[in-house]
Amino acid sequence: MSTSASISPNHRLEGPEDFWAYLDELVSCHALIIDRPKGSTHPRYPGKFYPSDYGYLEGTTSADGSGIDAWRGSLEEPALDAVLLTADLKKRDSEIKLLLGCTPQEKQQILYFTNAELMRGWLVKRSPELEWLKGRRSVRRFQRDPVPHDVLNRILEAATWAPSAHHRQPWRFAVLVSDPAKARLSEAMGAAFYADLLADGITQQEASERVKRSRQRLQEAPVGIILCLDTSIGDIYPDPERQYFEHLMGAQGVAMAGQNLLLAAHSAGLGGVWLCSPLFAQQVVQAILDLPMTWQPMGLILLGYPAREPEQRPRKPVDEITRYY
Ligand SMILES: Cc1cc2nc3c(=O)[nH]c(=O)nc-3n(C[C@H](O)[C@H](O)[C@H](O)COP(=O)(O)O)c2cc1C
User: What is d(CA 189, CA 195) in angstroms, rounded to the nearest whole number?
Assistant: First the structure.
């Protein structure tokens, strides 16, 4: 690409790819100078530490007259896959900052770092919507870092924007963040799981190992969310068939809230997985968490910052699972 490329009035806008390609050109032609390494303090705010390496592209100019700012994350490849738009009421300026080779968690840390004092930032990601959607994985191993409370609340709020039958919003959430709460629930669910496994004819040793693994999952996840269906708000029918469908509609709504929740977590750089274990121990979960009897546990979502990115699992081709009429 030529840096002298000009756009005529008749130039057809190609969409965001062109924008990113132009930024790529700047990144590839100008050396990145890191003048504020990870861990160093902010010159104007001594209590603030840079969460990643920060610098500028040598020989470029941005809105404040200095080089275009850039964050460099820990990924080997310094791929440009997001920019941060900023508005600073102290410097009275607005800028664009490049994010190079940053993990999802680093992006969130940078966003937090930016949204402080008199500065606000907005992250614009490069991947098209569908690619982003396909990037969601079921994550089962997490880093120890806790999930900030406001991030968790935003994710729960996203869950509430799911559609639901009659707009009854039948979802309810029991959120476990403390170690004792997670330990108590995993112990009680583990005991129920163990009894089920023995009843299925599995040996005591095998059952103990499976229960241990299952308990560890919840205990080691920073957050566990029991998704419940509030059975008190559905319509009442005289026949069991329609009553079953009413219950099913409620469960469908909870599942949609669960998917919103997983996607919102993915968007925030977190990973999550839906586990079905509470379905098999509904009364145990209700008793341990002292839930209202109408809150029927449907699933358990574990959340946290991914310890590693799991492999993408292939999908059935659309034409194999679809009939057009
Ligand atoms: C209703 C439901 C129940 C699930 N139950 C479990 C489970 O008990 N244990 C588990 O490891 N994963 C469970 N999963 C996650 C699936 O295994 C996972 O979504 C699937 O393998 C596809 O992988 P992906 O989400 O990474 O694309 C469940 C998912 C759903 C939607």
Answer: 10
